[in-house]
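The freezer alarm interrupted the setup, so I double-checked each line after restarting. Inputs confirmed:
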Amino acid sequence: MSAPAVERLGSATLRHVAYAGALAIQFRNTLATIWRSFPVVGNRLRWQSALRQMVAEGVDAFPMVGIMSVCAGFILAMQGASELRRLGAMNFVVDLVTIGFMRELGPLLTAIAVSGRSGSAFSAEIGSMVVTEEIDALRTMAIDPVEFVLAPKYLAALIVLPCLTILGSACGILAGGLFMRISADMALSIYLSSVVHSMVLRDVFTGLVKSMAFATIIVHVGCLEGFRVHGGPDAVGRSATAAVVKSTFLVILADVGFTAIFYLTAAR
Amino acid sequence: MTEVQPAISVRDIVVSYNGRRVLDRVNLDVHRGETMVLLGSSGSGKSTLLRQIIGLERPESGQILINGVDLGRCNPRELKRVRRSIGVAFQNSALFNSMSVEDNIALALREHTRLAESTIRLMTWMKLAVVGLVDAGKLNPQALSGGMKKRAAVARALALDPEVLIFDEPSAGLDPIVAAELDELILGLKRAFSMTVVVVTHEMASAFRIADRLAMLYKGSLIAVGTKGELLDSTHPRIRQFLDRVPDEIADTAGIDEHFQRYLNGGAM
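Predicted 3D structure, all chains:
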């Protein structure tokens, strides 16, 4: 390996380590201040901000997550049915859709939708505040930008993403039911009782843990990209793109890790 | 006789960006109740010095003391207290676009005091009255003109009744009439509240109207600190150039000739 290549590799490694360090510091600072966003014990203004974020990150995202989940539910049911029909095992489509959504597709699709919608919005909002010196103004007013801007977003995401994941999974499973009604003439009541039968509490738990981890990634990557903006409005655009790309990549990477952990612990 | 502690004391600070020295061993004292104007051409380091004074950046070496508190060594609680005693009006106003003007002003009061909402509203109204924006409280910052934004930023800086008020380029981008109004506002505030005021500007008329003392930066170093008279009488070539509005020679003709000569002799362009 030539010297410039080694130099580039070293500098890229340092850059990534610095990025991971910045994420870790930001996460620690958020944990130290997030209680100020809690209702009753915290600051009323932060909780109000968190409620507004819940609407933006969750309620407004539901139509998109719902439609994506319905489409994915149909796709999964059709793909599964095309193979399982040949084996005379159409009933297993119910298990495929249920387990697929509860463990995997529900959290992942929701996270990707939220990453695209909210991750870029966080970065653009904070990046604009950096460019217009609003973040500096907060600091000079002795207001911690992490507590003021980031913590309410994070609290909102921690509450809203698991809820969206459950709703998204329900949409996907219902789409599977519709497919079974059309293609296998299975009554919806029978489909739903089969869904309940194949649902395991552990799968629900797995999905929720994943969704909270994904919320952490999306909020922290999005906000860090915003705080790191230097320059003019074009830098804000670049940071929004970077936020979506990096958070989606990290969500999928984390999903592999979580799935491996749950797979290995389940096998024992 | 005990010496009176300055409100702001800058001691030997050095600041570099990417290996380039932006401030080089700068020393400056701003006394209580005085208006200090930082002058200098673009890139002279005056905005960097301002960011150091308000604690947004830390120097490579040296100290910044606000009312005797060293910003580099104080704990977060002390830093917070110091910041609450400084009001800053930024160059581009830096008003929060997601809030109305009155919410911008009320923010610091809501964050740092336990006052009732009715009291906060009254105080906000008073700050708006001081800057002549009583009717603009409900508007969003986007709906304000440049001059109104600057005045709203001043009202926000006044929210916690600071001891030190800092202005970054208050006249930038304003027409002469609005700029003069802002000068009068600064003078009025100083008279009414006996504040220590630091103003960064390169508008000479404004600087001489409001300053008690002026400090001039050139390429990261302070080349003069004194009263208006002292500055006007100075024979320092850079100060004279600045006061007499003499342009730098933009094109380095000797350098260009040498470069072409090298190129014609087979060197790279």
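Quick read of the result. The CA atoms of residues 9 and 29 of chain B lie 5 Å apart.
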